[in-house]
Structure formats: structure tokens, C-alpha cells
């Protein structure tokens, strides 16, 4: 990989390092606020520096998402023996050992049996909670799949087929999670209902544009303003209502008719609070700092980029080609695109974006581009994303057939310019890096 491409990777890696749980968990725990009383910095001293007899507060760690285990690991280091019990579900078994917290691994981006086992286990734990107990819920992206249940009358296979169809439809994360929340008795604040009479505080690692807690991980512990009718509208918009399994169809109809309770609405969860502890903006700002140390004149576009990957590619390419400013330059963006899958290839949104952008920049040898996911996993592949420029394309096969088949992984496997990090232990959407040398 040539020097400028390695620089792009180094900028991305610095962004990922800035949103690791060890960077934010201490501050997040100090900021815990329980309903009716403020737990400021004194809270941490209380729970770490006193015996159980002096302070009988029982603390439980629950969590779901790609970063749940790493967040729990940091929480255990800080809270130590004050944790009564813990349970988190994630997509990758960590190399380290948790002392008080059980880890369940489940599937992503489509739930599996372990996702349901995790949901059942959390509900079983909740049945033993007492007034005054504190549940610290550790939420990060991926929780929608990793923590799941199946509506009565439906099967796991039917749920998996629908979620797969949603992922390929081009629906954005808000639309996708609106449907997910209304096919669950856990999502959309419903887990927080079940955790009563305990107080709940959720520490959130955001992986959605706008950092809306009701969307992140389908918001199991926060109020949800969306409705069954809106879930149905999403299915209609993406032509997914035809052939909908009878159990799922009946569940949504019953919800719209008021036979099944709605998700938890604003004002309902007075026992539950939350904190957005880290987000894509933090990662992008760290990337900018790294680029500046390399001598780049840096500009941040946004930390909420969204839309179809090929459309964003057009926007980014035009911006780079029309750039007027000092060189060398680094233009940064963060967010999460969608891909409407029509081909039979292998890839992910970052690799698709990189390939589409690279194709548009193939006659601009002074511009290089990277797009990669901060979780280290792009779609159902082993790569976080990819880097590309005209030099890569000069010796590569024609990229157009790969793009037409949504087969970006195989293209970048041939060029050797995948970005591979493995599971990073964090997840704040994607980072996009444009590096411009003087033409």
C-alpha cells in the first residue's frame, strides 16, 4: 500500500482509538443521574470506595451491542466488587475475561437463537430486581440484532427473512429500526418497562446520524415516539408487505388496532435516564487532529452523512474535484450510508462507497479516498472498508462489473487495499477520508 494510502489508514485508526470505551466510561459513570436524585461525581466515589454494608445499593450491568463487552470490561475496572451481577450480548467473544459479567455472543446484522436467549435471560434477571436497585445498561450499535425476541405467531426464520429484506431494501437505520421495534417486546423502551422497580441508566455509544437514542440499537431502555402505523408505512414504502408471513402481518395489524401495546412513549419511563457518551463527531475530530499533525489542511464536512452510497460517492467526488484551497488537504466526513442490493456479490456499505468514489476519481491521481466502519466489520465481510486512488485503479480489473454486482469485496481483495482491523470494541458509524495532494 503506497504512502498516501497508509496515511489515510493511520488517520482512520486514530479516529477509532478516540472512541474506545476506556476513553469515555469513567466520565460516563461519573455522570449517572437516577430519577428524582442527582448522582454526580460523588456517585463513583460512593460505589467504589465503600463496603456493601455501608451502601447497600445493588448495581447490575446489562448491555447489548458490538461494544457491550468492552464497555462492561471498563465498567468492571472502575466499579469492581460493587457490581452484583452482569450480562451483555455482543457479536464477538472478547479476548479478556470479565469477572462479574456473563457474555453471550449472537449474530449481526440478522438475529439468531442466541439473540433470543440473551433477551430472555435479561428479562429473567429483571424479575429479581428490587426498589433502589440500579441497572447500568451499556448500549451500542448492533443491539437491534444481538438482543431480540420473536413475536407470538411468528417464527425466527420469518423474522430473519424480513430483516434481511429490510437490510437490502435501501431503508435507512431509522426506518429499519422502526420496524424492528414493532416486532419486539424488548425494543422501543419495553425492556426498561420490564426492569422496574429498578432505576435504569443507559450509557450509549452512538452509531446513528443525529445520535437519536430512540434509534440507537432500537432504544430498548428509552422512550420511542414511533408507532405500528409508521412501521407498516416503512414496509409499504419498500414493497415488503406482499408475501409478509401471516404471524408478522397479524402482529402489526393487532398493534395498529390497539390489541397489542405500543412501544414505551415519551413521559412513560420516569425511572430511566441516559447519556450519549461517545459519537462519530468525536472520532472525526480526532481524525482531523491526526491529519493536521501530518501536515494536512483539514476540513470536516459532517458527522451525519447518510443516503445511498453511490449518491454520496457522487457528492464526495465532485467536492474533491472542485476543491479550491491550500494543499495538501484532508476532507473528512462521518455517518452511515445505505446500499440497495441488486447484485449477488459480497461487500458492505464502506467498500461500495469506496469503489463508487474511486471510479469517479480515476482520472484524478492526486486524490485518495478511504471509507471504513469504526466497528471493524463492513457488512458480512472480514474488512472494515477500503482505500482507493487512481494508482490502485491503474493496475486493477475494470471496477464497473464489480460495482454492478455489489461485489466490492472481491474487487478490493484483488487490489490488496482492504482496511482490516478486526473487531475494534467500539462502534460510531463510519469514517470517510479524502486526501488531496497538489495537482
Can you offer a commentary on this structure?
- This is DUF4147 domain-containing protein.
- One of its GO terms (cellular component) is cytoplasm.
- Residues 8-252 form the MOFRL-associated domain.
- It comes from Chitinophaga barathri.
- Residues 329-430 form the MOFRL domain.
- The chain is α/β, with parallel strands linked by helices and 439 residues long.
- The chain has 17 helices and 14 strands.
- The strands form three sheets. The protein has a six-stranded parallel sheet with strand order 5-4-3-6-7-8, sandwiched between helices. Strands 9-10-14-11-12-13 form a six-stranded mixed sheet, with helices on both faces.
- The longest helix has 16 residues, at 3-18.
- α1 (3-18) packs across α12 and α13 runs parallel beside α14 (349-360).
- The model is unreliable at 34-44 and 48-55 (pLDDT under 50).
- The radius of gyration is 22 Å and the shape is globular.
- The chain has two domains: 20-149 and 184-226 and 263-278, Glycerate kinase, MOFRL-like N-terminal domain (Rossmann fold, 3-Layer(aba) Sandwich); 285-436, 3-Layer(aba) Sandwich (glycerate kinase, domain 1).
- It is 38% helix and 18% strand.
Amino acid at each position: 500500500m503506497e504512502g498516501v494510502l497508509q496515511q489515510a489508514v493511520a488517520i482512520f485508526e486514530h479516529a477509532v482509538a478516540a472512541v474506545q470505551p476506556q476513553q469515555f466510561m469513567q466520565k460516563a459513570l461519573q455522570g449517572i443521574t437516577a430519577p428524582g436524585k442527582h448522582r454526580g461525581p460523588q456517585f463513583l466515589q460512593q460505589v467504589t470506595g465503600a463496603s456493601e454494608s455501608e451502601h447497600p445499593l445493588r448495581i447490575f450491568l446489562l448491555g447489548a451491542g458490538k461494544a457491550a463487552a468492552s464497555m462492561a470490561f471498563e465498567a468492571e475496572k472502575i466499579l469492581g466488587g460493587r457490581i452484583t451481577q452482569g450480562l451483555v450480548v455482543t457479536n464477538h467473544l472478547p479476548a479478556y475475561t470479565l469477572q462479574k459479567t456473563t457474555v453471550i455472543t449472537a449474530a449481526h446484522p440478522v438475529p439468531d437463537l442466541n439473540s433470543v436467549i440473551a433477551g430472555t435471560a435479561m428479562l429473567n434477571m429483571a424479575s429479581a430486581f428490587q426498589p433502589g436497585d440500579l441497572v447500568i445498561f451499556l448500549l451500542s450499535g448492533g443491539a437491534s440484532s444481538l438482543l431480540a425476541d420473536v413475536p407470538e405467531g411468528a417464527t425466527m426464520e420469518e423474522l430473519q427473512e424480513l430483516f434481511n429484506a429490510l437490510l437490502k431494501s435501501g431503508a435507512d437505520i431509522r426506518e429499519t429500526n422502526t420496524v424492528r421495534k414493532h416486532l419486539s417486546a424488548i425494543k422501543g423502551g419495553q425492556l426498561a418497562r420490564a426492569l422496574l422497580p429498578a432505576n435504569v441508566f443507559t450509557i450509549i455509544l452512538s452509531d446513528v446520524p443525529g445520535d437519536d437514542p430512540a434509534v440507537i440499537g432500537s432504544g430498548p431502555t428509552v422512550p420511542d415516539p414511533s408507532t405500528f402505523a409508521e412501521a407498516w408505512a416503512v414496509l409499504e414504502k419498500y414493497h415488503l408487505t406482499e408475501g409478509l408471513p401471516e404471524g408478522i402481518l397479524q402482529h402489526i395489524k393487532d398493534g395498529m388496532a390497539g390489541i397489542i401495546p405500543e412501544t414505551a412513549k415519551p413521559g412513560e419511563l420516569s425511572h430511566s435516564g441516559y447519556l450519549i457518551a461517545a459519537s462519530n463527531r468525536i472520532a472525526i475530530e480526532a481524525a482531523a487532529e491526526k491529519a493536521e499533525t501530518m501536515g494536512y489542511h483539514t476540513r470536516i464536512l459532517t458527522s451525519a452523512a447518510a443516503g445511498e452510497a453511490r449518491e454520496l460517492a457522487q457528492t464526495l467526488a465532485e467536492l474533491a474535484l472542485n476543491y479550491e484551497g491550500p494543499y495538501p488537504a484532508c476532507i473528512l466526513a462521518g455517518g452511515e450510508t445505505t446500499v440497495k442490493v441488486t447484485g449477488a456479490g459480497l461487500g458492505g456499505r464502506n467498500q461500495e462507497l469506496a469503489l463508487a468514489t474511486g471510479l469517479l476519481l480515476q482520472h484524478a491521481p492526486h486524490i485518495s479516498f478511504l471509507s471504513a466502519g469504526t466497528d471493524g466489520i463492513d457488512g458480512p465481510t472480514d474488512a472494515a472498508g477500503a482505500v482507493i486512488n487512481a494508482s490502485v485503479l491503474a493496475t486493477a480489473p475494470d471496477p464497473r462489473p464489480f460495482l454492478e454486482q455489489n461485489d466490492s469485496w472481491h474487487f478490493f481483495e484483488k487490489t490488496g487495499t482492504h482496511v482490516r482491523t478486526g473487531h475494534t470494541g467500539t462502534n460510531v458509524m463510519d469514517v470517510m477520508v479524502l486526501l488531496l495532494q497538489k495537482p
